[in-house]
Structures are given as structure tokens and as C-alpha cells.
Amino acid sequence: MLAAVPVIAVTGASTAAAATDFTEFRGVHWSRLGDNATFDPLVLQGMSATDTYSSARSKADAMFEAFQVGLDANTVRLPVNPATVNTSWWNTYKAVVDAALARGFKVVLSYWTEDSGSKPPNMDSWNAMWDTLTNMYASNPLVYFSPQNEPWDGLQSWLDRAAKWISDRPEVPRNRIFLDGYRTVAEDYGSDLRPLCNDHRLDGTMLAFHLYGFQVAYATEQEWKNKIKTYIGDCASRTVIEEFGAPADTGADYSDPNSPDKNVPYLRAMVSVARELGLGSIWCHVIGGRIISPDHDELNILRLNSATSILPLWVPNMSAIDQVRFAWGMGPSIPTAPTGPLTRIEAENAALLGGARVEPHSNASNGQNVGWMLNTGDGTTFSNLYASNRLDIGYAATSAGTFSLYVNGDKTQEISFPATGGWNGFAEKTVDVTIPAGATVTLKRDAGDSAINLDYIEQPREAEYGVLLNGARAEVRSGNVNGMNVGYLLNTGAGVAFRDMPASSKLDIHYAAMSAGTFSLYVNGDKTQEISFPATGGWNDFAEKTVDVTIPAGATVTLKRDAGDSAINLDYIA
Length: 574
Description:
- This protein is an alpha+beta fold.
- The protein is 18% helix and 32% strand.
- The protein has 3 domains: 26-327, Glycosidases (TIM Barrel); 344-458, Jelly Rolls, CATH 2.60.120; 461-573, Galactose-binding domain-like (Jelly Rolls).
- The protein has 9 helices and 31 strands.
- A hairpin with a 2-residue loop joins strand 27 (517-523) and strand 28.
- The longest helix is centred in the first third of the chain and has 19 residues, at 53-71.
- The two termini are 45 Å apart.
């Protein structure tokens, strides 16, 4: 059970709605491996102490591209200290800030005390550092300033130090200053925002909330929600979750609300409150942090390819990333299944337009379809789709005709479809269309269109949500739509299994390969064929291979490297 949050002499027991929305800060920490509390210049994981501005800029640009492509992040929190800013190392470290700003990232510059103490050990060097940074970036609307990470030297001391930092730097807009909450119980660093919210010297600043689950015993999701909201009080309109995170290397399934792992209810509560109150949030740490294992922090949701190379970053736990994406506004509800995004959506579960009606049909995929689309404006709307570049549409039609496709309210195309032989004879039509994450897709009868019965729509099954076999890893790739694929298919037995497949007589495989070769296809454990594939030009260059194969409803389809097969990267199947 959670320890009770202590009552201190401040007001604010309820939680007011946020003035900003949760997509404003979709953030990650990039940190030094070994934690950011150090007297040494900060060398972020993936960088080297021998880097020049040019080499650091190249590495940072690759890292930020991966954060954008793989996570859709728009904010990075970077550590600073006097040994980094007040020395020649700043000429190199500045390349990281420059790379982030060039990609449109918001950058939160945050100071960790060098000795892990409660306040800066040398106030003169601390002030000199902040004078340099504010002189350089006060006029840049993308740069934010966090004077001290997790202070704990006494509440009044922190309030006074924060107020003086502000008064000494009037050129810095208050809404670009992040002030950490106070530690009111031993395990909760940076958590209590209420004293700051009620100190009028700090009015207009952003309040930075920190909370973790690994420091306390098991608590329910609701108990965590209550604790979070108590600490935020009436301050939600100024709050950003500046630090949250949970272990990504333990195999925890964060989609399982009944998991006995104490970190699961914590994380699910954090992302739920972020969505409910409209809070931006910053995961700590995406790369770098405390040394739990030789090469990573257990909180890392992305990992370096090797000790000497940044890319491609790989993903140790997709269910953790799904929770982060939910906090950032992606998906209609908190993920509760480890299978990834829903790929097939039955038309009867969509929003019906005009005179469209749900009706039974024995040959429809779920025994029902949507019909009676007899007039202009009749149709169906499907919400919160994930990013993809194609859409499969199950339908029936007595005669050939057209139907109109809209994405986020904009008409993208008029789809031509052949007759299927009758209202109970169903077929599938594949269309190429760019669907961004979170999009709404509408299939509607416009003037000149014809009547069809809609059975379902289906998006591709992303490989990163399959069961990864024998060393296969999800990794960030810029050449595909969803930002990830499965690679590291280096050994015999490495592959991906896709469960609960719909019935089909063919399979489309989206892949990348440096050279031509073969890969093996299994259905329900039986090898059906060895697939030959051509080279695509590189690991970031994807192509599609279609194979004829009988897949019964509910089957498990496995793509696997057998003896004699070659390496490929798998993006999706459809």
C-alpha cells in the first residue's frame, strides 16, 4: 500500500484542468550513463569525450531523428552542469542543443547537483552557468530552463532559491521556467507541487512533477491516481510531468491491468492521469541514466545498437512504449492487450452516418456488416487508427461502382470496386493511402457513388507487435510508416510469430534486405514454403512481397530464419 501523502500547510486539494494539452510536451530524457550528478563534463550516452562539434552534431541529429520517427517525441530534457557550460566542452555539447532545435524539438535544460546533494555545491558557478544559458537562449521560444533537479534542502530554502533565480533573470519568460516539486516524503523526490503553486513569487512558471513506482511497495492503480492528484492539487494548469518511468528490461507487460508487478499499476496510473488532466510528460530516461546493467538503465525504452554505434536504436519493451504513446494522446483508451494496435475494425463497431444500418450477413467476418447506404452521405467513420500506408476494405456489392474515402475529414480518393456476386458475397479491396497516427477514416457515399455493404477495414499487422523469436528485436527505422520494424534476424530460429490471423489465401510481407535470399513461412507450426525475396537496396528501403498461402481463421503465422535462409528486416504483414 502507498504511504499517505503528508499534509503540509498549503492549500489546494482538488485538481484543476490543465491549460495546455498533453501533446505540447511529448518528451524524453537523453542522459549520461551513470546518472547526471557529476563534477565532470556531461558526455551523453552515445557520445564520446573526444567528439568535436561536428561529430557530436552528427550523432545528436541521428538520435533525435530516431526519437521523432520511433516515438513521435517533440521534447528532449538535457542535463547541464558548470563543468559542461563553463568550460570548452560547451563548444561540443552545444551541438546537441543545436541539433534538437534544428528539428523543432523543445529543449528543457536541467541542472543536477554535482554531488547528488540537496542544493548546488557552488552557487557562483551555478549562477554563472545559468547566466550563460539564459543569455544565449532566453529569446528562443523552444528552450526551457529547469534551475535544479529534485531539491530537498528544506522547503523554504528551495522556494527562496527559485524566486531569486527568477528575479535575477527577468528576461526569461516565466512560462519557460520549469520548477521541480518538493520532496515531502523520503521516496518522492520532486513530487509535491502545492507549495510552489501557492507561492505567488513563482506565479506563471511551469511546475515539474516527478514520481516513480520502484521506490515504494505495491499499490493499486487507483491508489496511485489518488496520490498523483493529491500532489498536483490545484496546479494542473501549470504542470508538466517532467520525470516518470518504469523498468523496460524485466519483461513486464504494462498492458495487463492485473499484473502483480508493482510498476504496472504505477505506470498505468501516470499515463491515465496525464490524459485525464491534459499534462505533457517526459519519460526518464530514453537513453542513458543510472547504470543498472553495464550498458543501460533499466528505464531505457530505447537502447543503443552497440557500444560504438547509435543506430538503429532497438526497443526492449513495446508495452511500455504503448503506455507512453497513450500519455501523449495516441489511441482512444489505455492499452489493455499486448498484441498492439487493433488491425481489423468491424464496420458495425464504427460510427454510422446517415441511414447506414448494422445488419446480419452469414458470410461477413463477424456475422454482421453495415448496409443500407442508399443515399448521399451514408457511410461509416472509424476513429483513432494507427499510422499506415495501406487499408484493406472488406465489402460486398451487387454491381461495380465507386465509394469515397476520407482521412481526417479530407477526401483522399474515390475507390473503384468490382462486383462481388451479391450482398452476401464478400471480397477485399486494398487501397494505398497515407493514414497518420490517431487519424479518423470515413468511407462514405458521395454523389455519383454506388451502394456497398461494408464488412470491416484492416490495417497491416506491425511486426514489432508479434512474438519475437530467438534474438529478434524491434528497432527504429526511418524508412517505414510506423517508425519501427523487427531486425536482428541473425541466427537460425530468429523470426516473428503473428497470432490469431484472419482467414486468407495470400499474405503480403513488407520487408527490407541488403541482398537477395530466402526466409521461411510457417502456418500453425507447419512449414509451408521457403520464400524467395529480392534485395531492396538497404535496411531502410522497404518493398512488398506477396505469397499465396492458405491461412485458416485464428491461425498463427510465423516468418522465421531457417538454416540456409538470409537476414531481412520485417515491417508488417497484411
